[in-house]
Amino acid sequence: MNDFSYTQAATAKEATGRLKDTPQAAYIAGGTTLLDLMKANLAEPPLLVDITRLPFKGIEQTKDGLRIGAMERMNAVGEHPLVVQQFPAVSESLLLAASPQLRNMASIGGNILQRTRCGYFRDPAFPCNKRVPGSGCPALTGDNHNLAILGVSDTCIANAYPGDLAVALSAFDAVLTLENAKGKQRRVPITEFYLLPGTTPQKENVLEPGELIVAVTIPTATHAQRSTYLKVRERASYAYALASAAVGLDVQSGTIRSARVALGGVGAQPWRSSEAEKVLVGQPATEATFKAAAAALQGAKPREHNAYKVELAQNTLVRALQQVAGA
Known about the structure:
This protein is of the alpha+beta class. 28% of the residues lie in helices and 20% in strands. It contains 13 helices and 12 strands. The chain has helices at 12-21, 34-39, 74-78, 81-86, 88-95, 100-105, 108-112, 119-122, 165-171, 222-225, 274-280, 287-293, 308-325, and strands spanning 5-8, 26-28, 47-50, 59-62, 65-69, 175-179, 185-189, 212-218, 227-232, 243-252, 255-264, 271-272. The strands form 3 sheets. A 5-stranded antiparallel beta sheet has the order 4-5-8-6-7, with no helix packed on it. Strand 6 and strand 7 form a beta hairpin. The radius of gyration is 19 Å and the shape is globular. The model has no long low-confidence stretch (mean pLDDT 95).
């Protein structure tokens, strides 16, 4: 690891000011992602700004929905009664992630900012357009069995977000509150927060330099209360999703009144599927309808080793919809 300095910030203004003065500095909360990147020399910040003292905590009901502070820990949010009752899929996405030890440390804001688990990105011995733009993407023809099939480009097929929470948040129209060095806040829908790789895979989100995630707000809705998060992985615990689905349905008299669908493990970002939602709304909550909704993957661009993800994601979506409809 490179040598670095460390400081604690007491206020958001102090924290953002430190990054303004030292542009290559980094915020640290739980550290469960950043320290891994630093150990692998994939991140070399000269200064770490500890933001654990900032007042970005709390889980409360507001007129806009459920507001969750970005400094809340994953386990605390996943087990909170309001989250369990109003957003089962969000609770499940958190409690199926990582291990209890990591969930007790990792912050919500940090979890949203996870970086890809692509082996080529994580190994500096290989070229990678995310690390060094223009150097190439060996995953295109190499081992790509766990990489994306939706939203990819000729410069990068790595999953921009390997976790679970943002998939569920994308399904239920969550909005992020961001704060910059001037103390000005802005609200960004999470479906607009992540960027597709295109020709600039090194740009993963719309955060401006020094900007902080302050909170997440999830609108309360019937389809969110009747929801689930289904995760398919190579082993039963502490593994990233090969495919996942966050779904919510509002079913009345056997007919789907509203639906929300997002997929994980298959997209270059958490993949909200408006196509699947359009197929579901107004239709009977039957297996035939659910299979029709699996057409959401028509735009998939699989490679040699990850083509299996097309059928896997379709089956995962159908099963998740069946679970919710039968709840």
